[in-house]
Amino acid sequence: MSQSYFFAPERWATSRFIVRCYRPGDGPLLADAVNTSYEHLKSFMVWAQPHTSLEDAEQLVRRWRARYLMNSEFVLGIFSSDERRLLGSSGFHLREEGLENRAAEIGMWIRADAAGQGLGTAVLQAMLHWGFTVWPWERLVWRCNCRNDASRRTAEKGGMMLEGTFRAYERRSDGKRDDFFYFSALREEWHMANDE
Ligand SMILES: CC(C)(COP(=O)(O)OP(=O)(O)OC[C@H]1O[C@@H](n2cnc3c(N)ncnc32)[C@H](O)[C@@H]1OP(=O)(O)O)[C@@H](O)C(=O)NCCC(=O)NCCS
């Protein structure tokens, strides 16, 4: 194996939650989180469906694990400290030319009964901290539908900067088009603001 192969970090713990890559066996926790959150997720998460079976959820976490090990995509679960409950999901998604470009997009959803309590903001801050100290990211972005007030506020409170608006960026099922905000955070700026 090449010496330069990237071994992705796998886990970041805070006093409130753990962010880690999914593992085989996490399927039931994922199914519980998404099945109790459908109404909360359906407006902005295009993949949301009323029911996800245990088999489908297990298949998903295994696929994410495989892609993680292959450095294709880094989907991360947000777990309670005892890891018995999945609080949501995040990830460093390679949508900005990927690993070599050292840029990634942070995605996130928080389960319905844990949302609106400051968790999303805390997870975003943890992702930026982890991303700019342990991971090699130089640029991290957050993209959100302009109608998604919770997501926009999370990016703002998390300390990301609004770069601009992509007009008529995404087509809805009713044929209308939505504008999207683009936020970013840069490694150098993050260190200037956060290093002692
Ligand atoms: C967006 C999301 C991840 C934020 O996580 P969260 O834990 O709810 O966020 P926080 O509790 O840290 O709140 C952050 C800000 O959003 C606001 N907020 C939370 N839920 C809100 C809602 N339903 N409507 C409007 N604002 C909302 C909070 O009030 C807070 O802003 P404030 O301090 O000005 O009051 C979460 O609401 C979610 O999973 N939404 C559905 C999926 C989604 O849209 N993901 C983002 C895709 S870009």
Question: Strands, helices and their partners?
Answer:
Blueprint lengths: L10 E3 L4 E4 L5 H9 L2 H4 L12 H16 L4 E6 L6 E8 L9 E8 L8 H15 L5 E7 L3 H10 L2 E11 L5 E10 H8 L2
Parallel strand pairs: 5-6
Antiparallel strand pairs: 1-2, 2-3, 3-4, 4-5, 6-8, 7-8
Helix pairs in contact: 1-3, 4-5
The structure holds coenzyme A.
Coenzyme A binds next to α2, β5, α4 and α5.
Can you describe what's shown?
The chain has 196 residues and is an alpha+beta fold. The chain has six helices and eight strands; from the N terminus they run ββαααβββαβαββα. The chain has helices at 27-35, 38-41, 54-69, 119-133, 149-158, 187-194, and strands at 11-13, 18-21, 74-79, 86-93, 103-110, 139-145, 161-171, 177-186. Helix 1 (27-35) crosses helix 3 and helix 4 (119-133) packs across helix 5 (149-158). Coenzyme A binds at residues 40-41, 44-45, 108-110, 115-121, 144, 148-151, 153-154, 157.
Short description:
The protein is built from six helices and eight strands. The chain is of the alpha+beta class and 196 residues long.
- Going by CATH, the homologous superfamily would be Gcn5-related N-acetyltransferase (GNAT)
Q: What's the CATH topology label?
A: Aminopeptidase
What's the pLDDT, averaged over the residues?
Answer: 95
Strand composition percent: 25-35%
Number of strands: 8
Query: What summary fits the major beta sheet?
Result: 8 strands, mixed
Helix content: 25-40%
The top level CATH class name: Alpha Beta
Identify the CATH architecture.
3-Layer(aba) Sandwich
The rounded Rg comes to 17 Å
Ligands bound, unique:
coenzyme A
| Overall outline | globular
Number of helices: 6
